[in-house]
Amino acid sequence: MELPMVYLLSILVPIFFFFFMLISIITKQKAIRRPVLPSPWSLPVVGSIHYLRLVLAKNLLPFRAFRDLSVRYGPLMLLRVGPTDITVASSREAAEAILKTHNTNFSFRSELVAAKVILYNCTDMIFSPHGPHWKQLRKLCFINLLGPKPIRSSASIRTQESHNLIRVIQTYCSSTTVPIDLSEKIYAASTAILTRSAFGARIDNPERFNALAKEALELLGGLCIVDMVASWTGIQLLSGVKFKLRRLHHQIDAIAEEIVKQHELKAMRSDGPTDDNEVMVDLVDSMLNLQHKPESENVAMARDSIKGLILDMFLGGTTTTSDTIEWAMTELIRNPEAMEKAQKEVRNLYKDKNQVTEEDAMELGYLKLVIKETLRLHPPAPLIPRICKETCEMLGYEIKAGSRVFLNVWAINRDPLYWEEAERFNPERFIKNSDIDFKGSNFEYLPFGGGRRLCPGMGFGLATLHLILAHLLLYFDWKMPHGMKANEIDMSETPGLIASKKHKLMLTATLHGEIYSI
Hints:
Radius of gyration: 27 Å
Structural class: alpha+beta
CATH architecture: Orthogonal Bundle
Number of domains: 1
Distance between the termini: 108 Å
Helix content: 40-55%
Largest sheet: 4 strands, mixed
Order of helices and strands: HHHEEHHHHHEHHHHHHHHHHEEEEHHHEE
Strand content: 5-15%
Number of strands: 9
Shape: globular
């Protein structure tokens, strides 16, 4: 009885051993075949934190620094900062893999320390995880503000505020020596359009909120050292960032809370707004109504989520639009031939009309090219932060679950493989590339991102862009102040989630013709 068992074991043990070794060899070979993501040299434990610290200390813009690194290490590279893996994607192919092939896997935002503190534990739309809550917020925005119907409904607001902007600039035209802070004027107009459309009224002292918004956007860029070493509690305590974030949150929250309270009072006093020029039910009204309908199919709308979405509108709706208008005017001033073509087109269209209409402004062919080229060179969000939810393979490399992924839109939009004379402002390039649009399906051109997280405010922002630019080009001739030359304009950007122009655009304006209807 024992002999057969011993005999059987003597046969089975070598067989099992053989198969075990074979599987081990195959696994090792597969591991060897899988290339390691290229990466700058790193130190034990801290990784490449010294490099990122150098970038931040020298005020180098991360999207520019990452583009320079990608030239050496390739369009998909890895940076290890403490315990955090950062994958930087800087090519059209990498963008397609993230936004199309693995779209669902990369539809999540990193839970940044700044977002948790400032944006109510990431219950807003920008940083909310992909899921029912995010879908509900997006749907609310689309129905009440950002969809085709509400965009048409708010056209009169955009027209009124564009006229107000022209009146303000007109007061400076009596003197050709007094420069206009065009950055400030454009921001005020964009803010008024957004707040009246979304909240039913302008906000008091928009300049104060502008300063707070810029500070918040810098911290929400996703490259704060504290975010990278979030598990190192001592670093958070020593840096003092948490204290700074809480102070900023309290200041911004006071503005959002005031807006909510005003809508609650309005609802108590009447059934809704009576001004025919305003959107009848604005975004805040709709969100507040959900608080009283827990039995509906929608997810319950908490007060923090309402305030988080209000902040999203400010952070993503006013700054991005005003920045793009400012960049467009800057590029036109630096390129007189393009300025002349744009003004000639607008003035020919409106020479027999008394006012600029939004429908006509959206059909200005050359102005469309100017806006496309401006957004190519100056995308509002140059680095799009995502997180890899599950380990996957991308372009032959393994991207581990939990890795932070930055899509370097700024670098992709200037990739010389796809753009001739990529650094030059040339609106005419889009005549040849007329099929390239804003919708995120052309992965070499991603001014509004793409995939599930495509910017929901694209349509609203473009309507504002076309109308304000058409007004500025129609009614005024623009020059540099104090005899400055256009090539002397500082083109530096600010760091953070949104790349604004670092220095204000100061110009002088001369009235062209008469303003009949304003």
